[in-house]
Amino acid sequence: MDIQAPTTHLRPPGQDRGLRDVFANRFLLRLIVDKEIQIRYRGTVLGLLWSYLKPGVQFLVFYIAMGVFLDLNRGIENFAVYLFSGIVVMNLFSEVFGNASRSVVANGGLLKKIYLPRQLFPVSNLLVAFIHFVPQLAILLLACFLTGWHPGIKQLLAVLVGTLIISLFSLALGMLFTTFNVFFRDAENIVDLLIMVSTWASPVLYMWTMVREKLWDWVYYVYMLNPLTVAVELFHYGFWFPTTDNPQIWHIPPHLLTGWTPLAIVTSLILYFLADKLFRSQEGNFAQEL
Amino acid sequence: MSSSTTRHTPDRTEADLAIRVSHMTKEFVLRHTRSMKEAFVWLVKGRKGDLTAKFTALNDVSFDIYDGETVALLGFNGSGKSTTLKMISGVMNPDSGEILTREKVAGLIEVGAGFHPDLTGRDNVYLNGAILGMTKEEIDAKFDDIVAFSEIAEFIDTEVKFYSSGMYLRLAFSVAIHTDPEVFLVDEILSVGDEPFQKKCIGRIKDLVRRGKTLVVVSHDLGLVMDICERGIVMDHGTKVFDGNVYGAVAHMRNQPEEDVRREHEEGLARALEDKRRKREWQAREAAERGEQFVPQYDPDLDGPLAG
Ligand SMILES: Nc1ncnc2c1ncn2[C@@H]1O[C@H](COP(=O)(O)OP(=O)(O)OP(=O)(O)O)[C@@H](O)[C@H]1O
Ligand SMILES: [Mg+2]
């Protein structure tokens, strides 16, 4: 009987088709996202208001430290808007990256017992992060309007593309590290470290010009290769740039829109492709390692 | 090794296959924690030998299961039964060999695996239902049945962490049993809740069998296994040592002649049936004395399967 060709109506169990399976399980994805939100704010009086409060306080701290004490306030026009549009990007990045990296281990109990598309977990963290991203964007928009924001279509597109880059890049990194994390729990600590460093490795608290002026040329190019830098600059271009009075003093990095942005998209796509490949090649071993 | 004989079609074809396992082998790494020093020495010495001890949990296991078959997977602790079910459900992959299954396979590997203590019973029904592969429409349609079966309707909007452990299992089992897969994989979960609920669960499983569902059951309750299953596969230290009639499998487990096992079980069944009949007669007499009309509760063992 074993020598006969396999029958056609049967299939090997546990075949994962990556994002396609996640999309096919939209209903489950939505329930998982709902669960995450409910659990995070269980027993809190303020609930989702915390997602306004936390970035608000974070902003105040940085504003006082960087803007007032270090005097960047006078160096950069509308420093508050500049600062916050960068912080918003970094928050999205660190939430997706941090939570997605933990997602497989955190859901180990379930993964060990029932088969379900495992990419649901990192992807659900992306969606949860977006739920926290929207209120922050709302505050940012308010600040922009107060400082006389008049964006064109190019600026809006820049913000959209920046968001896409961040989503793809952070999800890719999250899937990569969540796979490592199953085998070596050190990965969690590395992720924390990377998140800490990433705020300083992109122009959130200072301007990109400082990197070019103070450091060697090659550092600047490496710096610009980082999709995070590009996304932050796209946000600056979209939100902060249109609020400044004399744009001729402030300029975005040369070739940001024509060169660095397409490059960041390609980098993120390649990274995502690799992460997806690694994740799928290793996911069969998740259940026995957890 | 005798091949399985069941009341279903004796001449089954490839098209009736529900599960095919051929030459499934699985090794596990025994020692997971390795210190930096060990790893370093191992690397420096040219990666000779294995850093970790290996353990063969499944060794060249093959069997075919056809539609409508009810199969018991028996064996002592650690013989590889749960691992086999995990392979079939896709939770784990074999190192070598091939496994093929039908599209919709539901593993009731452990009840309540997807339950979250901080969600209400209602939310958990939806979440767990979706995890087990139900669509929103299916859960909506079956929600009332699920709650009714679990008999905890009053608590359905309470967070699950405030449930007693029995209530929690009731709800979880109820969700699991209302999924509608082509193949059911059941691992040691038939002992949930109090006795009345256990009977109800087993009744429900027998219902599934009557409706022709394919069932693979892991259980150490050999009497129960003989009630439910027709075929038995016995595992020992990761190899298949018996595959055939369930009585033969139980006989293999108990080291007893098959005839004795079959006779004992059939006597037990006859006794249980007799008890049930006597109980019904007694109820009828009681009712007659009170001058009420007696409507017996439906019991498939006494009244035969329901039409439709
Ligand atoms: N993830 C794992 N890593 C290492 N060893 C494992 C793993 N899972 C199972 N094993 C080993 O494989 C063997 C078979 O385990 P399995 O759970 O299949 O046994 P079982 O037949 O279900 O036993 P029981 O009757 O106790 O439920 C055991 O010796 C167990 O230690
Ligand atoms: Mg087991």
From TrEMBL, chain A:
<feature type="transmembrane region" description="Helical">
    <location>
        <begin position="252"/>
        <end position="275"/>
    </location>
</feature>
<feature type="transmembrane region" description="Helical">
    <location>
        <begin position="52"/>
        <end position="72"/>
    </location>
</feature>
<dbReference type="GO" id="GO:0140359">
    <property type="term" value="F:ABC-type transporter activity"/>
</dbReference>
<protein>
    <recommendedName>
        <fullName>Transport permease protein</fullName>
    </recommendedName>
</protein>
<dbReference type="GO" id="GO:0015920">
    <property type="term" value="P:lipopolysaccharide transport"/>
</dbReference>
<keyword id="KW-0813">Transport</keyword>
<dbReference type="Pfam" id="PF01061">
    <property type="entry name" value="ABC2_membrane"/>
</dbReference>
<keyword id="KW-0812">Transmembrane</keyword>
<feature type="transmembrane region" description="Helical">
    <location>
        <begin position="157"/>
        <end position="184"/>
    </location>
</feature>
<feature type="transmembrane region" description="Helical">
    <location>
        <begin position="190"/>
        <end position="208"/>
    </location>
</feature>
<dbReference type="InterPro" id="IPR047817">
    <property type="entry name" value="ABC2_TM_bact-type"/>
</dbReference>
<keyword id="KW-0472">Membrane</keyword>
<comment type="similarity">
    <text>Belongs to the ABC-2 integral membrane protein family.</text>
</comment>
<feature type="domain" description="ABC transmembrane type-2">
    <location>
        <begin position="46"/>
        <end position="282"/>
    </location>
</feature>
<feature type="transmembrane region" description="Helical">
    <location>
        <begin position="220"/>
        <end position="240"/>
    </location>
</feature>
<dbReference type="InterPro" id="IPR013525">
    <property type="entry name" value="ABC2_TM"/>
</dbReference>
<keyword id="KW-1133">Transmembrane helix</keyword>
<feature type="transmembrane region" description="Helical">
    <location>
        <begin position="120"/>
        <end position="145"/>
    </location>
</feature>
<keyword id="KW-1003">Cell membrane</keyword>
<keyword id="KW-0997">Cell inner membrane</keyword>
<dbReference type="GO" id="GO:0005886">
    <property type="term" value="C:plasma membrane"/>
</dbReference>
Automatic annotation (TrEMBL), chain B:
<dbReference type="InterPro" id="IPR050683">
    <property type="entry name" value="Bact_Polysacc_Export_ATP-bd"/>
</dbReference>
<feature type="domain" description="ABC transporter">
    <location>
        <begin position="19"/>
        <end position="262"/>
    </location>
</feature>
<dbReference type="GO" id="GO:0016020">
    <property type="term" value="C:membrane"/>
</dbReference>
<feature type="region of interest" description="Disordered">
    <location>
        <begin position="284"/>
        <end position="308"/>
    </location>
</feature>
<dbReference type="GO" id="GO:0140359">
    <property type="term" value="F:ABC-type transporter activity"/>
</dbReference>
<dbReference type="GO" id="GO:0016887">
    <property type="term" value="F:ATP hydrolysis activity"/>
</dbReference>
<keyword id="KW-0067">ATP-binding</keyword>
<dbReference type="GO" id="GO:0005524">
    <property type="term" value="F:ATP binding"/>
</dbReference>
<keyword id="KW-0547">Nucleotide-binding</keyword>
<dbReference type="Pfam" id="PF00005">
    <property type="entry name" value="ABC_tran"/>
</dbReference>
<dbReference type="InterPro" id="IPR027417">
    <property type="entry name" value="P-loop_NTPase"/>
</dbReference>
<dbReference type="InterPro" id="IPR003593">
    <property type="entry name" value="AAA+_ATPase"/>
</dbReference>
<keyword id="KW-0813">Transport</keyword>
<protein>
    <submittedName>
        <fullName>ABC transporter ATP-binding protein</fullName>
    </submittedName>
</protein>
<dbReference type="InterPro" id="IPR015860">
    <property type="entry name" value="ABC_transpr_TagH-like"/>
</dbReference>
<dbReference type="InterPro" id="IPR003439">
    <property type="entry name" value="ABC_transporter-like_ATP-bd"/>
</dbReference>
<comment type="similarity">
    <text>Belongs to the ABC transporter superfamily.</text>
</comment>
